[in-house]
Design a protein that fits this description.
Number of domains: 3
Oligomer: single chain
Number of strands: 13
CATH architecture of the largest domain: 3-Layer(aba) Sandwich
Shape: globular
CATH superfamily of the largest domain: Nucleoside phosphorylase/phosphoribosyltransferase catalytic domain
Strand content: 15-25%
Bound molecules: uracil
Length: 424
């Protein structure tokens, strides 16, 4: 096959065959197809799109580029959860132990922060002693012993996605629906769970900036799951402001603990409860309302939190030693009015500048720092009233930049829901 002919075909908006996509991806992994040739193909896809058939073929070739987890070694229904990336997104930390407390097996490989978004592995690593690099043997033993494990990938899953994603990141080809769908689903299919929950974030801090695009992505994710007989449930949720109040690793773990103790912020709770209800209802053959009651009960009776503690202890973490910085700066509002918007992408980037995330590969993460908002969209703030708190150590940030993340007006604009919908 001819490399240039394939690029040319896509440049002209034609549909690539399974053989052509397989040749191209495998050639790229072998080094026979160069970065600049893959970049050209990615840009042609960005401009001309891909049919669902092409996306299915691309997903399959990426999935088969690496190992596939043998989940038959896990006894019971295995569930995986993914988020398309958000700010203050700690849903995994609450939802996974909650579902595990119902006996559902959570076998999850998670990633680190990407760009301005945080990663579950970084958050868990803020708990002193918590081991994120489990061997395959440890991974399976833990999930069979206590029903929940979250680790960095310990197998060479989806080699194609790692190499292609790195190139997409530097060629402005990230926010393309078929490329995002094949990237997410090839990774999730390689983890081989029976049920895959995907939180598709929508808004100024998300990859999907509008609901129509988020719906299109969700439909495609579900379709790719169906091709592999996997139940995929997508929840579309609002990322026009950070989720909950806390941004930053240890701060987010603390907020997750409060939520697991029945004391969490309402937006985080709403997403967790909805996702859990959608799983618990059908499994127990009960109505949505009954499932919802069960979920709340499990949050309020301490069982979900006990499962979280058991999970953290099993992976070596010591919650007693979880600490956030004691250097706290209170930032006051320079105006009075209603908070109509919070630029979550910018807040996420500012939290990273404080050290909560990396600027370069060589940087180390400061787990104790971050930003805690005192207000949410829709709240009223008085001049000189606290808008947020900074938890800092060595690094600091520009306060005017921080204040510019908040749009404060005299009139309250219509507020958006936390959950936009479910697509299965
Ligand atoms: N998350 C992924 O895993 N892949 C993408 O392409 C975008 C978000």
């Amino acid at each position: 096959m001819d490399i240039l002919e394939i690029i040319d075909k896509k440049r002209l908006g034609k549909e690539l065959t399974k053989e052509e996509l397989t040749f191209f991806v495998n050639g790229f992994l072998d080094g026979k197809i160069k970065d600049y040739q893959m970049s050209a193909l990615l840009m042609a896809i960005t401009i001309n799109g891909m049919t669902d058939q092409e996306t299915t073929f691309l997903t399959d070739v990426m999935l088969n580029s690496g190992d596939i987890l043998d989940t038959s070694m896990i006894n019971g229904l295995v569930l995986d959860k993914h988020s398309t990336g958000g700010i203050g997104d700690k849903v995994t930390l609450v939802l996974c132990p909650l579902l595990a407390s119902f006996g559902i097996k959570i076998a999850k490989m998670s990633g680190r922060g990407l760009g301005y978004t945080g990663g579950t592995i970084d958050k868990l690593e803020s708990i002193p002693g918590f081991k994120v690099d489990l061997t395959e043997e440890e991974f399976f033993k833990q999930v069979n012993d206590i029903g929940i494990v979250i680790s960095s990938p310990n197998k060479d899953l989806d080699k194609a996605d790692k190499k292609i994603y790195a190139l997409r990141d530097v060629t402005s080809t990230v926010s393309i629906i078929p490329l995002i769908a094949s990237s997410i689903m090839s990774k999730k299919l390689a983890c081989n769970a029976d049920v895959i929950l995907i939180d598709v974030k929508v808004g100024n801090g998300a990859l999907m900036k509008n609901i129509e695009d988020a719906k299109a992505l969700a439909r495609l994710l579900c379709k790719l799951g169906r091709c592999h007989n996997k139940a995929v449930i997508c929840l579309l949720s609002n990322m026009d402001q950070p989720l909950g109040y806390a941004i930053g690793n240890a701060l987010e773990v603390k907020e997750s603990i409060m939520t697991l103790q029945g004391n969490g912020p309402s937006d985080l709770l709403e997403i967790v409860v909805k996702l859990a209800t959608m799983v618990i209802g059908p499994i127990n053959k009960i109505t949505e309302e009954e499932a919802r009651d069960l979920v709340f009960k499990q949050l309020n009776n301490g069982l979900a939190y006990n499962k979280f503690k058991e999970f953290v202890e099993y992976q070596g973490g010591d919650l007693e030693k979880l600490s956030v910085s004691s250097k706290i700066i209170s930032i006051k509002s320079d105006r009075s009015g209603y908070i109509n918007q919070i630029d979550s992408q910018k807040l996420g980037s500012l939290a990273n500048l404080l050290g909560a995330g990396k600027q370069t590969e060589e940087d180390t993460i400061d787990y104790e720092v971050g930003i805690v908002s005192s207000k949410k969209v829709g709240d009223y703030v008085n001049v000189n009233e606290e808008l947020l708190r900074l938890y800092i150590n060595e690094k600091t940030i520009d306060i005017t930049e921080l204040l510019s993340c908040f749009v404060i007006d005299n009139q309250l604009r219509e507020t958006q829901p936390v959950i936009y919908g479910i697509i299965k």
